[in-house]
Specification:
disordered N terminus, alpha/beta, 2 domains, 7 strands, 344 residues, Rossmann fold, globular, DNA polymerase, domain 1, binds S-adenosylmethionine
């Protein structure tokens, strides 16, 4: 149980509110409820309703507190945002869909979650509604699979050597948090003294265990679909891979396809969304002082131009190589293993 003294600081809250303008009413989907920082602020505007989601069951306690205060205007579901499509919100006036990616302060400080290399807890990393833990991934996947995870999700330059040493080490003893941290420290030649040697591998494992790329892509598609005309899709990212995916998706829906200058001029179909600011919004100096983890936060948003709920995007094709890496985890699914034991 995490102490109530450990408070999460909602990142870029003022900026989010000024973009989505809840004072004008409507329904807002808070896809990453966490400690309820965004939801509570939106609900402080009397005409606004909130539908909130979070994959972590621990969030429900906070959600129950808010529900007591705002019974008629607040709904919480313990669901992953990739399932936003199943919410049946067709008749709602959805004016905003918001994602504040990553994990909250309370999650990183919870030893049960084992998200941090400083934690004495298990090598776990499950944020909620998962199929396997980081311990299972490290101790069961093969060398090539581990190397790809560290390389593509952590941008870890020494991924190959680390993966090889993991395979050697686990033949001697099951790998837990401490063994993994020591192994990475011993393996890495090129140490960057600004960040801990294990940072990139731990980020990669967290993304893999929670299927964060697949979640984000399906979440963005579903979010863009449910919005009404003039609705805002806003995303706060915390690392370059997330930002790359969001930037690609936003550009993909907001820019006309370029046609060769040698072709006759034709009218371009109007795009479904528009980008107002090309550059992401980042925390103010004041916020950076008050909340150091906000330093890597980037906020991007797009505005829907029409009431159209289906569109084409090639985002799945463009990031297929990452989704395929996350699918290495399918063989670790408990149900999947039971299925095979039963039939074969
Ligand atoms: C940075 S916190 C959000 C904090 C929140 N904005 C606040 O002010 O309290 C991110 C939250 O998103 C949740 N989350 C991450 N991935 C998710 C997913 N795919 N579906 C639903 N919730 C997710 C995490 O469990 C975590 O509680």
């Amino acid at each position: 149980m995490v102490s109530d003294l450990l408070k999460h600081y909602p990142v870029l809250l003022k900026e989010i509110i000024s973009i989505i303008t809840p004072q004008h009413g409507g329904t807002f989907i808070d896809c990453t409820f966490g400690q309820g920082g965004y939801s509570k602020e939106i609900l402080s505007f009397k005409k606004a309703n909130v539908i909130a989601l979070d994959r972590d069951l621990e969030s429900k306690k906070k959600a129950d507190e808010i529900l007591n205060q705002f019974k008629d205007r607040f709904i919480f579901r313990n669901k992953k945002f990739s399932q936003l499509d199943n919410l049946k919100v067709k008749n709602e006036n959805i004016r905003g869909v918001i994602f504040d990616l990553g994990y909250s302060y309370t999650q990183i400080k919870d030893p049960k979650k084992g998200l941090s290399f400083n934690s004495l807890g298990q090598l776990n990393m499950q944020m909620g509604l998962n199929d396997f833990s980081a311990k299972e991934a490290i101790n069961k996947l093969n060398e090539i699979e581990l190397e790809k995870i560290f390389k593509f999700f952590g941008d870890e330059k020494e991924a190959k050597k680390i993966a090889r040493n993991i395979i050697k080490q686990r033949n001697i003893k099951t790998i837990d948090t401490k063994i993994l941290v020591d192994l990475i420290e011993k393996t890495k030649r090129n140490k960057n003294y600004k960040i801990h040697s294990a940072t990139k591998v731990f980020q990669a494992l967290r993304i893999f265990v929670n299927k964060e790329v697949t979640e984000l892509i399906y979440g963005l598609i579903a979010g863009a679909k449910v919005l009404k005309k003039d609705g805002i899709l806003a995303v706060v990212t915390f690392h370059s891979l997330e930002d790359k995916i969001v930037k690609y998706f936003f550009k993909n829906l907001s820019e006309s396809k370029s046609i060769s200058r040698y072709m006759p001029e034709v009218d371009q179909p109007e795009t479904l969304f528009k980008i107002v600011k090309k550059k992401p919004i980042t925390p103010s100096i004041r916020e950076l002082k008050e909340n150091i983890p906000s330093r890597s936060a980037k906020l991007r948003y797009i505005i829907k131009k029409k009431n159209l709920y289906n569109f084409e995007t090639d985002i799945l094709k463009n990031f297929k190589y990452l989704i395929e890496i996350e699918n290495f985890g399918n063989k670790l699914w408990k149900n999947f293993l039971l299925f095979f034991q039963f039939y074969f």
